[in-house]
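Hi support team,

I've been running sequence recovery on a batch of backbones for a student project. Most finish fine, but this one hangs at about 90% for roughly twenty minutes before it completes. I'm not sure whether the input is malformed or the queue is just slow. I've pasted the structure tokens below so you can try to reproduce it. Let me know if you need the job ID as well.

Thanks,
M.K.
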């Protein structure tokens, strides 16, 4: 099991927003929803688009390139042309820091 990695400051993410971080060569998207923080792959599973450039709405991230939608908490692809789910990552908050585990 991999270590917890410090990836961002929680205060830097507004509610219903997303940022991109790069950690150990992997691009992740870190989201803040009403009930907490979540992490998924940062690159869309359909093509090479940065999800942090998309829109967070009602618990979904809409890809900026072809408007595929994914459920943020589960990574499930919910609308075409996205069909392949995103990976999600375990995340915790320590103080104001966001830590993720890449497993
Ligand atoms: S690149 Fe994201 S839906 Fe096509």
């Amino acid at each position: 099991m991999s270590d917890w990695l410090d990836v961002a400051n929680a205060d830097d993410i507004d509610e219903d927003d997303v940022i991109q971080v790069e950690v150990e060569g992997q691009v992740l998207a870190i989201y803040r929803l009403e009930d907490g923080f979540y992490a998924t792959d940062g690159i869309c599973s359909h093509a090479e688009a940065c999800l942090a450039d998309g829109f967070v709405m009602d618990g979904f991230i809409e890809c900026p390139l072809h408007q595929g939608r994914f459920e943020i908490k589960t990574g499930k692809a919910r609308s075409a042309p996205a069909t392949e789910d995103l990976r999600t990552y375990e995340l915790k908050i320590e103080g104001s820091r966001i830590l993720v585990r890449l497993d």
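--
Follow-up from support: It reproduced on our side and the slowdown came from queue contention, not your input. Residues 44, 46-47, 49, 63, 65-66, 68, 81-82 surround FE2/S2 (inorganic) cluster (CB under 6 Å). No action needed from you.
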